[in-house]
Amino acid sequence: MRIALGADHRGVVTASQLAERLRREGHEAVLSIPGSGETCDYPEPAYVVAQRVAGGEADRGVLICGTGIGMSIAANKVHGVRAAVVHDELTAQLCRTHNDANIICLSGDLLGQRLIEQVVEIFLTSEFEGGRHARRVHKIAAIERGEDPAALPEHA
After folding, report:
1. What is the pLDDT of residues 43-95, one digit of tens each?
2. For all residues of the chain together, what is the average pLDDT?
3. 120, 109 contact by CB (below 8 A)
4. Which domains, and CATH codes, for the chain?
5. Quick one: which of 78, 112, 142, 153 has the most CB atoms within 10 Å?
6. Active site residue 98
7. Dihedral sign of CA atoms 89, 91, 94, 95 in order
8. What is the three-class DSSP state of 143?
9. Could you say which of 9, 40, 65, 105 is catalytic?
10. Cα gap 5→65, rounded to integer Å
11. pTM to 2 decimals?
């Protein structure tokens, strides 16, 4: 799988270690992080990763900042991105199976490396369930197009 990873200065070490692990597991991992000792505003790597995912250069994305919240807000501004803040195995699974999230945003400050690796593994192996969830994802896409989701046909 092609995975785009990005981090601000608070997630550099975590993202680098995660990229190494993903490569050992056979994934193609592309890393967007600031240089050693440099600070970085989280919207910058969020944009790069979101563009790669939305443009088809990556299958999924992983973003790491202090809390994951800023990355999520920034990444979700890119058309076609569904970025979720994830903090455990269950939210990693549900963001994929119910929301078809294509990017997860993690806290480099609050989650340990081991938990982050477990969460990412679940995110990468979980599949979207479709069904009633597909209708809801279509409504999210309608909002993205500036449309009222309530105006869509019930089974769209």
Report:
1. 999 999 999 999 999 999 999 999 999 999 999 999 999 999 999 999 999 99
2. 93
3. no
4. 2-128 (3.40.1400.10)
5. 78
6. yes
7. negative
8. helix
9. 65
10. 11
11. 0.93
